[in-house]
What does this fold into?
Amino acid sequence: MDFYSFLIQLLNGVQYGLLLFLVASGLTLVFGIMGIINLAHGSFYMVGAYLAFSLAGLTGNLFTALPLGIGVSVLLGFALEWLFYRHLYARDHLYQVLMTYGLILVFEELRSIIWGDDVHGVAVPDLLSASLPLTDNLSYPVYRLAMSGVCLLIAGGLYGLIKKTRLGMMIRAGSSNREMAEALGVNIKRVYTVVFALGVALAAFAGMIAAPVSSVYPNMGAQVLIICFVVVVIGGIGSVWGALLAAILIGLTDTFGKVLLPDYAGMSTYILMALVLLWRPEGLFKR
Amino acid sequence: MSQYTRRNFLKGGAAVAGATLLPAARAQGARVKVGLMLPYTGTYAQLGVAIENGFRLALAEHGGKFGGREIEFYKVDDESDPGKAPENANKLVQRDKVDVLVGTVHSGVEMGIIKVVRESGTLHIIPNAGADAATGGMCAPNIFRTSFSNWQPPYPLGKILMDRGLKSAVFITWKYGAGEESLGGFRDGYSKAGGKIVKELFLPFPNVEFQALLTEIAAIKPDAVVCFFAGGGAAKFIRDYAAAGLKGKIPLFGAGFLTDGILDAVGDAAQGIETTLHYGDGIETKRNKDFRLAYAKTFLLQPDVYAVQGYDAGLLLAAGLAAVKGDINNKAGMIKAMEAARIDSPRGPWTMSKAHNPIQDIYLRRVVGKENKVIGVAHKALADPARGCKMV
It folds into this structure.
């Protein structure tokens, strides 16, 4: 590999890592901070992608579909929290696993009834459909770069929200000692509802902006679910910067694994996880 | 107390055993039991439905009877789950005692079925799963296939590439059975024609992050790229290939199912891609037109390659049962007739190889608009090499 293609692969790796962070960001909130094992995270991602497909079809453009889709997914988040999740905060993790696994099945079936089992595509918005030439026969789609930018904005936004705002303070207080925070007058119930809805919206948003490059197809949520958990676990549960760093590490490992050790590419990210956890059992950044 | 229950249990068990034996002992002339083990939920649900529709259409066109006998269906949803395959196959073979087992789509599940029917000797017709072993190392007199082996569709691409002066190629696929077998077919055809695969690129299945490997392809600069992908992954690969600027610079060819069922999703990115398969759009024969019209009228759907394979499974069983005049117990006679059958398929007539896989024409198709337009025959009467099959 010459230096120039090394640089291109580096770009590929970072870009893939940022995309992974975007997909995992909602899980950082729900699993990392609220402490709920949410296997349905991938389903919310899938719902987002299908919403983008439907709404972009209706409104003719992904940009107009985005705010609508976010609105729908926030409502979905509120409803799910109110109906299902709030009953499980105090329960054992096993109950959460069981219920959220059930939700995966329900969402897959609903998807099949509403949208069918076909593969669909979402058009890249005209504004971002150009490509930048890198070599004589390879170019880089502007849309992918724009996605990376959005991922960085979200990382910054999440960090700011949790560390610098009043809501963030209440979230942190609630996750370290729920009773004490309540005794101090924080309405933890409402805080959790908001955080959960935000987590759903983030997952759906990731699905929406990934739809033009990934296509929209059945079971697409299952494909991202495991890697999302890997990102959160390597990063250190509850840490936004940790998740971002972990995602980029995974992106680079996956990219260079495929190029340099193709026979072991399937394992490379899990080997990385094993090594990190041996070195720091609580992840890169402890909260 | 415990003795009492045990005796009761034994009595009950005997009654159940008697009840299940009864239908088997029923006089000849009763219905032929056909087990359909297909995916009715999950990613491959539509394929399962298309196959069943095709099979039922063949039955309807025979007046609802094969060899003068009515058909009774027993259905099991295999969920495309290889882990449940032996159990599901046994439900049909042991519990329902089907005469014929038709299935399935997923190659992993298929290997589970084969394990069961090789032991029980039940007649078995495979309407899709392409695993080479089914009519290769694991072939058996009671196992027939009406679809293809993974080796078949990509084999003719080798000669097509060489005829166009494309002497070096990169092959890219998922690292799993179907992908590696497809690569095997292409490699055989390409090296025979004098071409050279300069690099084989693999991704772990079902990973769809292609960017790193597309960068490698751009650096290698082969004359052509050949791939095996299907479904959502295929749609993403085609889009990524175009977005990386490779489309139009290095021609992309597909082994098999690359462009089936996803053309709406990929739009312009797929235009001009050429693939080889045993079926396609615009086969201008009366046989095909009649079939397509009848299918569309009956099911209010356009038929696809899976519907054709299911339809041919029906035709094959019809040929077998007709030859023995409906005597399903004359298994040797049926097998002989099915081996000799010439199936008048919508894809074009085909015959059975010694290993029980179709000897069939493979078409070259090009994506034009929303169709996989057939532009010629890539290989006449192609037979799978059936490596490891003892019946050859």
Remarks:
- The CA atoms of residues 53 and 122 of chain A lie 6 Å apart.
- The radius of gyration of chain A is 19 Å.
- The first strand of chain A starts at residue 131 and ends at 133.
- DSSP finds eleven helices and two strands in chain A.
